[in-house]
Amino acid sequence: MTDLPTWLQAFTAVVALIISVVAIWQSNAVERKRDRLRAHGIAVAIYPELLKLADTLKVTHENFQQLKLRNSALVGQSIASMVHTGTVSIPFMLDRNVDNLYLLGDPACPACLQLVHVLLQYNDLVQDIAARVVMMNAQQWPEAVDHLDSHLHLISAVVDKSVSGVRPIHDSVKA
Predict the structure, then answer these.
(1) pTM for the full predicted model
(2) What are the start-end ranges of the H helices in 71-140?
């Protein structure tokens, strides 16, 4: 008869263990669902901005082309401020959610993080080249603008990669 309390304690311990495992599993499921919903929210927020960014890059490219065509005889001092307008802002929602992009997973997260990094580098380059253009003559500054323009093409490729990574998450959201 003394074995009954021992068996009862063992049974109670096993039940308690099962309950704790189920509770942990359920809390993990809730966290995964919350992260998935946050990822959908981020994708819905940044996807239109990524599409708009692609258009902004095209407009900036066209502006650089027009700058070279219309002002080819001017010296660098005259066009430095126009070169400075070639900066491209990081889309607001992308910038705001940069710390949570990991929720998007592969391949969207690395592509979006790369996009933020490349845009920061590009804008620094624009500032640097605009400062240097001031000292250039009419034959030198178009090459500097071409250098910026080549970076725009590289950024466009990263934007396309980001769009293709975010699109499946964005499209999986049911209206």
Answers:
(1) 0.80
(2) 76-84, 92-96, 108-133
Q: Are 126 and 89 in contact (CB under 8 A)?
A: no
What is the C-alpha to C-alpha distance for residues 7 and 100, in angstroms, rounded to an integer? Answer: 49
> Rounded to whole angstroms, how far apart are CA atoms 133 and 117?
24
Q: What is the pLDDT of residues 115-174, one digit of tens each?
A: 999 999 999 999 999 888 888 887 888 898 999 999 999 999 999 999 999 999 999 986
To which residue do tokens 């769009």 refer?
Answer: 163
> DSSP of 32-92, one letter per residue?
HHHHHHHHHHHHHHHHHHHHHHHHHHHHHHHHHHHHHHHTTTS-HHHHHHHHHTT--PPPH
